[in-house]
Amino acid sequence: MTNELQHTFFACLQAEWSDSTIATLATLTPAQWQALVTLAEQQQVAPLLYHQCKRHQTKIVLPPAIKPMLHAYYYRNGARNTLLWHELGAILDSCQQHEISVLVLKGAALIGKVYDNKALRVMADLDLLLPEAAIGRAVDLLLARGYQAKSQIGTEITDHFTILHHLPPFVHPISKICVELHGTIAPPNRRYSIDSADLWANARPLSKAGSTALTLAPEDLLLYTCMHATYRHLFELGARFLCDVDAIVHHYQAELDWDRLVARAKAWHWDNGVFLGLALAQRLLATPIPAATLRSLQPPDFDEQLVEEALILLFDDEQITTAVDGEFADKWTNLPWHVKVGKGVRMLFLSRRKMATHYPSAPDSFKIFLYYPVRVKDLLVSNLPRVRLLWQKEPDVAEMIQRKSRLTRWLEKA
Amino acid sequence: MSNQGAFRINEPQIIAEEIEGEAIILNFESGTYYSLNDSAMEIWRSLQAGYPCSAILVHLQKSYQDHGEKVTTDFETFLQQLREEELIVPTAPSATSATPPLVTEVMPYASPVLNKFTDLQNLLLLDPIHEVDEMGWPHPAP
Q1: Counting CB atoms within 10 angstroms of each CB, which of A146, A164, A262, B71 has the fewest?
Q2: What is the mean pLDDT of residues B45-72?
Q3: Cis peptide leading into B138, omega within 30 of 0?
Q4: What is the pTM of this model?
């Protein structure tokens, strides 16, 4: 991929188009337009690209094949989000009837609160934050609506939150809609783990007919968007997260308390990730982030090379990105072999209580021991893609692992 | 077909939304969705507003006088399609005025078109970045 293509791509996603952007687009060949659309699709921002081109339709002429193609992405996403949005409404109504508080996260919160048009933001599923005490009842409601857990839900539901911040996804067998129930927003046992009580205290209403759902306060929404894309996904969410940052900042421009945002980022140890997310949005999408905010967040050891590394990961080959995450890359690169082996063994032989969150048996039942061989097989299957990648010893894979390791280390140093 | 009656959207099975002037009509149960061209959109809005079919037809005939019988035939065919797809069901008229408001800028006439798409279930299955498997490395038990 050329730098020119990346440059044009980000210029198209900026809230306002400059004269030079319009001049560049006027010179694109149909093949270059096609490359731009393909990139937008890969980065999950094709509906936004369509919308931007439509907004500026008096200034540019799209090749005949491009406009219907972009419109199809936009329209399909609108249909998909309409379906998800209506299902969200039904779930929220049901939760309200059972007096369960819900805080809507990620895509649904963004299309409900930030993006003016439901078709603009690509989203995968419905993410809901619930008080831990209400999780069991919420699971019952989803099961009553016909949802099925994608993997085993243990008898002690809250045990899952000692491993991860959400339960295994629930999928509806007919609509295929996926719902994730979160106990908090960051994984446990990390430097960047947080208690969600503060999020609830500052939550805002999410206008939704017939329900009293909440969503994050503007500062928390921006912080969470940056944290999720950096610490959690190490930029594999692509340009979509930068567009989210840009949309949040533009939507809440008059309301955002930047000092509060900085204070919370530091208190939660999210400052390096938040800085990098905001700095990228400012550079690539001209998002109006106050200079003082970036200065306050910028760590003393910040190196411009980190921006380049993040950009490479943003446009990385999907196979490598999804197979090897940042934490794995960090451990693979930096831990001695005997520690790696030790971790592998501990991963195989989980405590019985942890095993019960993965397999259908009570922790105190003899049956749980029968699942240890199953776990060996499951781990082999789930780790096969990354083992295959590491086995091939391709130079670009090794380089990507090193890059992920460096960024992960830097992010977690805050 | 009689044009005396009125129709309503077949809710809750059918969801209809208008996003920036474009209709998204969705069958919640089957996952099938539909789009409309501009002239179909004009009819759809009038149906949603509760106008009787006869009033909608009179309105279309006034707007597109040069197209005579074709307007009537197209309208009836389009209504038939909407019914066959179970997007609308008969109801009593509920609009507050007798005829739909005239469109200030009448577009060149085009037959109303209902486009049907069946790829939504496949789209819902596409989830390239989802965290589904949390069993293994790098999430060992503490």
Answers
A1: A146
A2: 88
A3: yes
A4: 0.85
